[in-house]
Amino acid sequence: MVKVEAGNYGMYRVMGMLNLLGKDKHIFSKRKESLYITAENMYNKASYFVHPQNYSRFSGFLKYYGQLSERNILTMEASAFNATWNGSGQIPERAVAEGLITRFGAIDPSEGGQTARTNANIILKTFLGSNTIMKNQVYYSYYKLNLFTDFTFLLNDSIHGDGINQRDNGRNIFGYNGSLEVNKKFAGKNLRSVFGLTTRADMGQIALRHQQLRTILDTVSIGNLYEQSYSAYLNETYHITEKFYIDAGIRADLFYMNYQDIRGQKYDTASGKNQQIKYSPKLNFYYNLTPQVQLFARSGYGFHSNDARVVVTNPNVTTLPTALGYEIGSTFKPFKKMIVNAVAWGINVANELVFSADEAKTTINGPSQRFGGDLSIRYQLTNFLFFDLDVNYSHGRYTQLPNGQNYIPLAPSLTSVGGLTIKAAKGLTGSLRYRYINDRPANNNNSVVAKGYFLLDAVVRYRIKNYQIGLTVENILNVNWNEAQFDTQTRLRGETIGGIDQLCFTPGSPRLIREAFKIHLVCIFVDI
Who contacts 424 (Cβ-Cβ below 8 Å, separation ≥6)? Predict the structure, then answer.
């Protein structure tokens, strides 16, 4: 299969997928096997920005699936990804209002960066008997990031500016996941037991530097990172009756963090080690009231992770703040071709942590509570017309801050997606979809508001035999909307010392139009 896309503002994308094993071709066994490779190259000039983004991305993916024997199934995957871009960054609202730049302009046009990742993954699934399944997975990733940003401009350095460079100078990630699943009878009822062990290690060098126009001026922090996690879990699912069953489990996680600053003895206080163990139980209930109605109540503990550079040096920062989630709801079919999922939920976090990457520091905001509801509807209106709707409501506040000062920044209270999809005869398909998010506080006292938006997108495709053409239009109404938004204290040239606290945003894209052509080369394979 080969797919070619082109769009306005200098966008193109080429993607191909190839079956490397033809019919009756094998590698490791004479049983069912498949081997696919796919690659993608994308470039988006995004010329609606005054300083084009020139986003370039290449990715490749290789997957093997094979039944080695009656008891063993092997999956192997490898992938690679690389991307480079320029960015216009976050801009203050006043810069646009005063005419200093346009909505798609930049205060610091040197922002942007490069990132790359290589992955390898192997999964062996073994059937030890009719009721026992063992899975073993090992994986490896190599990751690099070189990011240039400028959030506050001349607030701290009125000469060179406040540009920063965040670097992951090559992180090696090793991991293992193993599980044993046993299905048996207990007191005449079905019992499913799953026991698992996991571990992951991250090793690399991370740095935060002060830069101007991508030239490094000084180093804020640089050091070698080693993180290791070990986890064990047990999950039990027991059917008490034909309609009622319980799912319960517990997970133990041990985290070890080691960060060593490499700038010399003067910076030894920035180095350190820390470790913590967390126990996370869960308990879920399910009741099939009728074949069309399922009721459920679920609850479980988890945790909020933190940055190693912070927790190894500050004993007042909780490494893994506890989180408790709970929900009650139902999945039901009111009509033959409609399915509805309705849930009321809540989340309590023992300590809400906000990590500031530009300072390598964590802000401790104390405990928080969120509660809300989710509604999901899928409905087949006719033989060819389908409707879907998702609506999500959330109310979140810090619990130990005064009323009016306890908003959770950037936490929306209402979001929704949905649309209509047509699957007509003779290869014609299309959809009209929307995305909505409401206005929300950008800081604790709601004095700065992040603006919501409503967007419409449309897709039309037509396929005849092995050929398909398509047209995609994003942001049909050409709405001015903000993608990223933050309440940030910034200082522009000519402004007084101390700067101004104001909403800063990254503009969302204007109306985008893309044409696509796809050909399915069903009979093509490579003999290996």
Answer: 384
